[in-house]
Fold this protein.
Amino acid sequence: MMNHTLNAAAAAIPLHRSRSARAGYRATVRAWVTPFNVWAVVIIAAGLPITYARFTQGLASVTNLTDASPWGLWIGFDVLCGVALAAGGFVMASAVHLFGLHDYKPLVRPAILTGFLGYFFVVIGLMYDLGRPWRLPYPLFYSPGVTSVMFEVALCVALYLTVQFIEFCPAVFEWLGWRSARQWAVRLTIGASAFGVILSTLHQSALGALFLIAPGKVHPLWYSPHIPILFFISAVAAGMSMVIVESTLSHRAFPVQTAGHDITEMDRLVLGLGKAAAVVLMTYFALKCLALAHGRHWHLLLTPYGAWWLVEMLGFVLLPCVMFTTAVRKSRAGWARWAAVVTVCGIVLNRLNVSIITYRWNAPDRYVPNWREIIISLMIVTLGLLSFRWIVTRMAVLRDDLSDAALLRPPTRFSDGAMTS
Amino acid sequence: MSVNRRDFMRMAAVGLAGAAPAAEARADADSRISDAWMGMLTDLTLCVGCRKCEWACRDANQLPEPKPIDAYDDKTILEQRRRPDALNLTVVNQYDASAGGGSSAYVKSQCMHCFEPACASACLVGAYRKTAQGPVVYDTSACIGCRYCLVACPFEMPAYTYNSAMQPVVKKCMLCFERIIEGKTPACASICPVEAITFGKRSELLQLARKKIESDPQRYVDHVYGEHEAGGTCWLYIAGRPFEELGFPSNVDTTPYAERTAQFLSTVPFIQTIWPAVLMGAYAFSQRRETLAH
Ligand code: SF4
Ligand code: SF4
């Protein structure tokens, strides 16, 4: 883990001439060379020159964007998928703080952190995509265009990022040992959660509503006047599934942090979430069918795009729904975890279908991402994971809140005794 | 687009049965049309594909990499299908004779200067403006470069300077707004050697188009493109062949595109008022349950 690395590295510096230090140094390097770290270094090394090109020579130098296909991977994946998958924050916060489902408390902080980092890196992705990213505050502070759905997205995302930061503040203040600030921040939790639900409802649906204005471009099977509701409902399912996926991965990646967790209790929570996700997915499936019937598009199911629509709907909505249901009935948390993975993939597929794969489906010149765009997207995801790791190995996110006594201790920062002992 | 559909959406988004009827704003669509609006009428049966308008446009807009007017005599470019881009705010395409006979048709395309522009409604910094004179103009000073306007335009007209790192901008025809203000005719209309492009009041151009079609029904299809498309546009076309055959999008709404998103935005206040009530109710309920449990 990175903590060991940093400790050992810090120790190695003043002594680097002695033989034992050199051995220690080698051990450090070996401990550091994990598959993920190697991946991170490679992808960032590849991403930096692309970043340089992007900001010195313009979008044309690194993307395949055209006048006809003005939105590519950075909007379709980084923004649309990023926001949908970060919905776990508002779902968990409202479940626990507003609806009183206190059992799920251990999942709230990781969900809020995932949400906050998700949105934060959505904004980073947006900085790459916007022609003039330095004008990012313009819509809010200089020249608001209130007739635009995009304006609503911008406003809600900006506010929600702030809300999530406030929601995560208690963990930060615990880490810093600021007791009174923590108490103060905790008091904001209820209000922040409620505000977060409203903002999330608005911008999750607004991301779908962006496409309302392009009926001739998005394929009719994916275009629907109900697309705002479809985006919102599917984001709720995505958020719940991401909470399951994230907690599963965290257990593997951060055993020290999750040592205190009761495995059977975690399984119970996963099944509870799975049950809720099954209901949400069923609703989503029904609404999708309703939209299909409403648009009278049944005949399109026989076209190649129809087959693709069925793949999405059956393989990535109905299948995980059934998996969740079976998992709950048979008390198999493992199945629910796999169902969550499928759901997450399904939402990614849906967002890409709407924004890229079926966008201008009948045009001869279609957008295919440039490999450089893919690298940047991967780099942003990697930076998000690195940030997640940096934070959870320091702050009380996965492990329980620190007790008041622990709060009196100085922040743990680089000395990791409290976590490893 | 129907009232039912919109009501359905509103109800479902808000969770309210019987929400207020949505069609208030629709009834007086005609009253939004200004008689002062100027426009253009392109008669595609007259166009000979000389591309002089392309040159004049590039010249009048002082676009980079200017080419001499002779360069536009090159007809090989007509073999490709082009759309307006950052260097050519208007382009002429050739459509070969239809199976039924006749000769090639040439189509000049550019921004249509919609009555209720989708681009303007989509812009989150209000960079677009429908001027009192009719042209839809774009101002770079606030544009953040999100390119939502490119997504929104049903005619796919705006272009973007993707190759500029520091000052990328949207590029589109502005109907020579500056020239109109000075009382001049737009560059393309003034150069056209066969007078295929007529500049004038939109309302009068529509009359002219109708008169032309009526006086020679053999020559024209009975369709003034732009009269109703996208809710009406200041640029009008008449042609000798169905517009679908000439590369015009055939599936455009006859209501303004902006309405589709306006409808969604109108649900926002509902969510803002109903959600807090629901959430606070749920919170109060869960608190009460806990108190009772203790
Ligand atoms: S044609 Fe497109 S760019 Fe021109 S005014 Fe209409 S929506 Fe805007
Ligand atoms: S690219 Fe510029 S003009 Fe177009 S919608 Fe975005 S901010 Fe507005």
